[in-house]
Amino acid sequence: MLSYRHAFHAGNYADVLKHIVLCQSLDYLIQKPAPILYIDTHAGAGQYALRSKKSKQTDEYKNGIGALDFSKLPESINSYKKIVQPAFSAGYYPGSPLLAAQMLREQDKLSLFEMHSTDCPLLKQLFEKDRRVRVNDSDGYHSLKALLPAKQARAVVLIDPSYEVKSDFDLVVEAIKNAHQRMATAVIMVWYPIVDRARVEKFIKSICNTGIRDIWRYELAMQEDSDGYGMTGSGMLVINPPWVLAKQMRECLPLLAEQMVSESGYFVVEELVGE
Ligand SMILES: C[S@@+](CC[C@H](N)C(=O)[O-])C[C@H]1O[C@@H](n2cnc3c(N)ncnc32)[C@H](O)[C@@H]1O
Fold first, then answer.
1. Looking at the whole model, is its pTM more than 0.85?
2. CB burial class (10 A; 0-12, 13-18, 19+) of residue 21?
3. Which of 51, 126, 157, 164 is deepest in the core (most CB within 10 A)?
4. Residues of the chain above pLDDT 90, percent
5. Structure-derived torsion over alpha carbons of residues 20, 66, 221, 253, reported in degrees to the nearest 10
6. What phi and psi, each to the nearest 5 degrees, are found at residue 90?
7. Residue among 114, 126, 145 whose CB has most ligand 1 atoms within 8 A, to mutate
């Protein structure tokens, strides 16, 4: 049984990083007309009320979306801003499936996976009228075998587990290998928490050792690394990122850090494996 509910964390600094990377990548890809298949292996509920009881219990969004001054952020992240700013004013935060659905076009398709017995019905309800979207209550890791290579010319995969169980790290590596083997051109994005730096580096190394090329990481940490006192930061690892992404992240991460991060925090933009 799954216990993690994203509603407690929605809009926090980790979501901000993850969703900017997602929106920037989609923003670049939609400039060409060829259809895209978007796969969200761990989709969540799709949207989250920020003044709900759950969100209020942690108030995590206050150090994330709530701390952002959009007027000081670069124009290059306008795609994220355009969707998130009005949503925030209306009291909710859009999750990855909703951001993707709002950015993608008529010719694109979305395949969303969510196994939580409460969140999956919410996700289904949110997209019941959107014919581009298919919501599944099955295991997102396994979906990649069935969906890739995509019928569409291009594919974007977001792998965003909660890492509730340690095996998630190994499952992610296997899922990446599978997805890349089936469709080498797919843009694959993986979110990871920074709790234990040694664990993160082991994880990153095992992905780099797969032989896959063109791998980048973007990290934003609230404070310096510590040994297991909870999450201090998070990262997005991207395989086959649009070429403009590194430049855009180098531009926006210092500004995000200025607004959300303590003095001992930091950010990273790093090419892990070249093209
Ligand atoms: C971090 S949340 C997803 C947040 C979402 N991607 C976003 O950015 O808005 C992770 C979700 O994965 C779900 N989950 C956990 N294991 C799963 C699996 N094997 N397949 C599909 N969903 C799973 C959890 O119920 C949880 O809602």
1. yes
2. buried
3. 157
4. 85
5. 40
6. -85, 0
7. 114
Domains in the chain with CATH codes: 6-273 (3.40.50.150)
Q: What is the pLDDT of residues 234-253, one digit of tens each?
A: 999 999 999 999 999 999 99
Determine the Cα–Cα distance for residues 63 and 198; give it in Å rounded to an integer: 26
Please tell me the distance between residue 39's alpha carbon and the centre of ligand 1 in angstroms.
12
- Does ligand 1 lie within 6 Å of residue 44's CB atom? yes
How does DSSP classify residue 17?
Answer: H
- Residue 55: pLDDT band with limits 50, 70, 90: low
Q: Is the Cβ–Cβ distance between 148 and 179 less than 8 Å?
A: yes
Q: Is the pLDDT of residue 1 over 70?
A: no
- Provide the residue type at 162 as one letter: S
Q: Which residues pair with 237 in a beta bridge?
A: 190, 217
Q: What percent of the chain has pLDDT over 70?
A: 99
Distance between CA atoms of residues 93 and 162, nearest Å: 18
Residue 124 token pair:
């289904």
- At 198-245, the pLDDT tens digits run 999 999 999 999 999 999 999 999 999 987 678 999 999 999 999 999
pLDDT at 7: 85
Q: Whose CA is nearest to atom 13 of ligand 1?
A: 42
CA dihedral 75, 108, 155, 145 (to 10 degrees): 140
Identity (one letter) of the amino acid at 244?
Answer: V
* Residue 53 near residue 9 (C-beta atoms within 8 A): no
Distance 162 CA to ligand 1 centre (A): 6
The first and second tokens of residue 260, run together, are 């959300």
193 phi and psi, to 5 degrees?
Answer: -85, 150
- CA 160 from centre of chain: 6
